[in-house]
Amino acid sequence: MQVDAVYENARVWTGESRTDALAVLHGRVVALGDDARELSARRRVDLAGGFVVPGFHDAHNHMAWYGMGLDDVPLGACRSVAEVYDAIAARARELPPGGWIIGSGYDQNKLDGGHPTRHGLDRAAPEHLVRLKHTSGHMTVVNSRVLDQLDLANIPVGGDVVTDDHGSPTGLLREQAQLLLRPLTYPTPLETVVRGLGRASERYLSEGITSVQEAGVGGGLVGETPAEVAAYQLARDRGQLGVRATVMVASSVLHDLADVGFGIDLGIRSGLGDEWLRIGPMKLFADGSLIGRTAAMHDDFANDPGNRGYFQVPEDELAETILRAHRAGWQIATHAIGDRAVTAVLDAYEAALAAHPRADHRHRIEHCGVLRPQEVSKLAGLGLIPSPQGRFVNEIGDGMRAALGPEREGWCYRLRSVLDAGCVLPASSDRPVVNGAPLLGLNDMVQRRTAAGHEFGPGERLTPEQALRAYTYGSAYAAFREHELGTLSPGKLADFVVLSADPTVAESLPEARVLATAVAGEIVYEED
């Protein structure tokens, strides 16, 4: 047999064993080690001792949001509200009056002065429409020119418009209140989404990401357009979608269907698609953000008497949506960050599975942000998949510590304890909420330290190999794709990353760089 390529002189971690070569035919691994070297090949590629691992798989990211946001005013490095206003004023000087200025990535926990306000934005850009997206995606600040166009008499359930001591809106829209912007901003033009996917793909491949799960398309807070899957198809047709994508469908898109019960038109549900693009879970939101203090908690946020956050939908409606989607055969991915929200989602899944038992459902809790000790075993016993973000500990961990206080910190973004309980653990970034480079995420899953240097739930640290398995096999499993992704076993897709250092060794992990990325056995990125 002649294969397309043999990659040799490598140190390969397949996810199951170690070897030094792999052979590829028709985009799949067909042999390893000596068996690979002995094959006739059209190409032989010397990897010069590089470390090869399966392609990284981000189990929860917002690819379109990230790619389109590369044109926004970057606010993540700002450390005062004055710096935010200066950045917006600088952009205003570059643009003609009357248009939009979009800023992204601010975090009030890192700003001297807290949240920006509409009045500050009015001074910075008096002749423009201004919107600042919080790094969590759960809040937005707008200026008066935008606020004056919103229907503030009809604030959606599950959100609020923040007011000052005099009852006047500050410009801060939280959670579902952001939907008030829809008449001005929705839908995003299809070509804009396609361009964003292409730009995101380039970045992802440079970081070793070969597969992603898009955490919400078609509607809700995170959808860009009702035709979002068409944007993915167009990007794929044009060669701009460089990574394999599983897309989660916003729960607001599902509706009653004859014979099916609950779904999207044509009776489509989780699992439809091919090696490049497929329909994944239904995505719904239980609550909000920890650093924004809108997540639904059993007890008050630290130093914030009376604030326990809130649900984005009534609890009975949440449970009913989960029941209907489960009964109709969907995989379900529910955003739940606060411990009260996690409890409600656990109870809803338990009730749905009791009413309609289903083996291997792989329902998920996205983030699973604050999980009480007594509920770890329940999570595992129900066969649920928690989907936490390791990078959160570093980038927004100090804000999470402040929100929770020391007594609840150890419950936050658990890793080791859910693995020990028997759960399969995927890895993800929630990009653009934080930097989505997997090598950063892997290191944070091992180190568990905040940006200020504080240990954050040190008992939840993983070994490098456990973290790497989460970012490969665990994520593939969460997408029902472990039969074709997640390890470099013969028969599986030949998606892999070549690294400069061994990622299974804690001391070398911080120094590792991506030297090359291959998809379907073809090198699609090489370091300059």
Written description of the protein model:
By secondary structure, the protein is an alpha/beta fold. The protein is 29% helix and 24% strand. It contains 17 helices and 25 strands. The strands form 5 sheets. A 7-stranded parallel sheet has the order 8-15-16-19-20-21-22. The chain has a 6-stranded mixed sheet with strand order 3-2-7-23-24-25, with no helix packed on it. Strands 9-10-11-12-14-13 form a 6-stranded mixed sheet. The two termini are 34 Å apart. The model has no long low-confidence stretch (mean pLDDT 98).
**What overall geometry do the principal axes of the alpha carbons give?**
globular
Task: Write out the strand line-up for the largest beta sheet, numbering strands in chain order.
Answer: 8-15-16-19-20-21-22
Number of strands: 25
Ranges with pLDDT <50 over ≥5 residues? none
Report the average pLDDT across residues: 98
User: How big a fraction of the residues is strand?
Assistant: 15-25%
Number of helices: 17
Helix proportion range: 25-40%
SS class: alpha/beta
C-alpha Rg (nearest Å): 23 Å
Q: How is the main sheet built? A: 7 strands, parallel
For the terminal residues, how far apart are their CA atoms? Answer: 34 Å
Helices and strands in order:
Blueprint: E1 2-8, E2 11-13, E3 18-19, E4 22-25, E5 28-32, H1 33-37, E6 40-46, E7 51-54, E8 56-61, H2 63-69, E9 73-74, H3 81-94, E10 100-106, H4 118-124, E11 129-134, E12 139-142, H5 144-147, E13 159-163, E14 169-175, H6 182-185, H7 190-206, E15 209-217, H8 228-237, E16 244-250, E17 255-257, E18 261-263, E19 277-285, H9 315-327, E20 332-336, H10 339-355, E21 364-367, H11 376-381, E22 385-387, H12 392-395, H13 397-404, H14 406-409, H15 416-421, H16 438-447, H17 464-478, E23 496-499, E24 514-519, E25 522-526
Parallel strand pairs: 1-6, 2-7, 8-15, 9-10, 10-11, 15-16, 16-19, 19-20, 20-21, 21-22
Antiparallel strand pairs: 1-4, 2-3, 4-5, 7-23, 11-12, 12-14, 13-14, 17-18, 23-24, 24-25
Helix pairs in contact: 2-7, 3-4, 7-8, 9-10, 16-17
